[in-house]
Input
Amino acid sequence: MTAHTDTPGTVTAVYKVSGMSCGHCEGAVSGEISGISGVTSVKAVASTGEVTVVSAVTLDDEAVRAAVDEAGFELVGRA
Output
């Protein structure tokens, strides 16, 4: 489970989330993860179950898991 650095000062991580099936699901997951301190962008794709998160620092996986749970979905792990 590693994240990679895109540009200086940013970290990109891709997570697998189960249960997303539509744009509303994508929005719910993106909205919750966006609330985590340090997150600068989130892109959720229901068809692949992948959520790409760009942040200023490496995120705590438990914080991401809690946000995904709050949206009503399950964090499977990192892609």
